[in-house]
Amino acid sequence: MENIVYHIPALLEESIAALNIQPSGTYADATFGGGGHSRAILSCLGPSGRLFGFDRDADARQNVPDDTRFTFVYSNFRFMRNFMRFYGIEDFNGILADLGVSFHHFDDENRGFSFRSDSPLDMRMNQSQQTTAGILLNELSDKEITNLLKLYTDLKRPALIAQRIVKARENQTIDTTGQLTEILQPVLNPKNLKKELAQVFQAIRIEVNGEMDALKSFLKSTPSMLKPGGRLAILTYHSIEDRIVKNFMKTGSVNGEEEKDFFGKSLSPWKMITRSPITPTENEIERNPRARSAKLRVAEYIGPNH
């Protein structure tokens, strides 16, 4: 499979510039995917530079570059710190994380990430895990589905959607994206059908893959993984994860609670490089419409209790 088909990275030049790459530095691509960001980082590194790419999807292995400076780690980025110890890495000069879903996942009809084809309700990033979207939808209670939709969408009638799903599965299990789409249509706004379907699918995907918990664990570990002056660059695609990243970079806490010293000075170990997120240009959106919702936030690690 061609790499460009697997994924086209959003804000590529801006992301690489944000890392302020030192040719002899050590870097991490926390979400390797199609390898686009990794290849761009490698092009900026000298012979002694090193790059580690992390991904929990075994399919990403097909995109690993043939480069002795690169190490692929088959793991969720929430466990990066453990693997640093394993590889003898004390700290990174920069870490990049692209929280978007690869085109490969949306376009592969066997993975069940999209309502555009009738596929098994899977949605697992790591296909060795047991819980699929189908298992989740057939086991969660009415209340649990409602809470899930409230947490990860801004849909106006989450309880009605949950009731519809629970009612439908009384007759037969919900096994495919086509079934789910058919079940949802009567309780969604026909004028915004695709947008609302996308929100429901996104909420299920987030839950199946534990995306918010993984993001929070990863963020909390980043101060212990970066050199002072090291950069953290993160691409987000929806408001929930963007708010978490923004809070963390601003306050040092994923919930936005800022710790201060006796004199009222912030104890956050971060200096915001981007006060407002960097977003794609109209030209980039025209070339890559899926980049439309991307936001890049960047912070510099200034050390503990600076």
Low-confidence stretches: none
- Report the total helices: 13
Oligomer, anyone? single chain
Q: How big a fraction of the residues is strand?
A: 5-15%
Mean pLDDT: 92
The N- and C-terminal alpha carbons lie at a distance of 47 Å
CATH top-level class of the largest domain: Alpha Beta
Description of the molecule:
- With 306 residues, this protein is an alpha/beta fold.
- The chain contains 13 helices and seven strands.
- The chain has a seven-stranded mixed beta sheet with strand order 3-2-1-4-5-7-6, sandwiched between helices.
- Helix 2 packs across helix 3 (36-44), helix 7 (142-152) crosses helix 8 and helix 7 packs across helix 10.
- The mean pLDDT is 92.
Keywords:
306 residues, alpha/beta, Rossmann fold, DNA polymerase, domain 1, 2 domains, 13 helices, 7 strands, 38% helix
Concise description?
The protein is of the alpha/beta class. The chain is built from 13 helices and seven strands. The chain folds into two domains: 193 residues, Rossmann fold, CATH 3.40.50.150; 82 residues, Putative methyltransferase TM0872, insert domain (DNA polymerase, domain 1, Orthogonal Bundle), CATH 1.10.150.170.
